[in-house]
Amino acid sequence: MDTIQKEKNIALIKDVLRNYLLEKGFRNTPERYTILEEIYGMDHHFNVDDLYLLMMQKKYHVSKATIYNTIEIFLDAGLIRKHQFGEKTLTSSSYEKSYFDKQHDHLVIYKKGSDKEIEEIIEFCDPRIQGIKEAIEEAFGVNIDSHSLYFYGTKND
To answer: Per the annotation, does 147 bind a ligand?
Structure first.
């Protein structure tokens, strides 16, 4: 993605956040926008500890409590997505930006011989899953807005 498109995307998600905060009556703080920009600058999943360390390294003055509170706002606003990959970390939830991303699924690969220590997370999109979704909608008379699918395993030698 080129620099101009990235800037347009950042401007758009900032507008989404601004409108959400106004609608919900929340304070419009610069820290929230800084956190949002850091998240949308990432190309991988993250947890609160990762984000906090990144922000400390960049000399931002933001508490971990502020990050936790802001994460909840971003989740509700549809700006990020929460995952629980089953990893053994201090903060067991992982997050990823979601506003521009299409629905996708995850293959979680654990390190061999570890107690659920993640080696790699592979995102994938398989058109057959869309067919399954449509069959479920028809069978149960529902409209599915989103889904999550996780496969867990280890690499073959």
So the answer is: yes
| CATH 3.30.1490.190 domain extents, the chain | 102-156
Structure tokens at 68: 């936790």
Helices 64-77, 48-57: inter-axial angle, 10-degree rounding: 120
Q: Are strands 150-153 and 105-110 parallel, antiparallel or unpaired?
A: parallel
Cβ neighbours of residue 64 closer than 8 Å, sequence gap 6 or more: 48, 52
pTM over 0.70: yes
> Is 155 in contact with 119 (CB distance < 8 Å)?
yes
When the candidates are 3.40.50.300, 3.30.428.70, 3.10.310.30, 3.30.1490.190, the CATH number that belongs to 102-156 is: 3.30.1490.190
**Is 15 known as a binding-site position?**
no
| Check whether domain 1-99 has CATH 1.10.10.10, yes or no | yes
**In this predicted model, what pLDDT tens digit does every residue of 93-123 receive, in sequence order?**
888 888 877 677 888 888 888 877 888 888 8
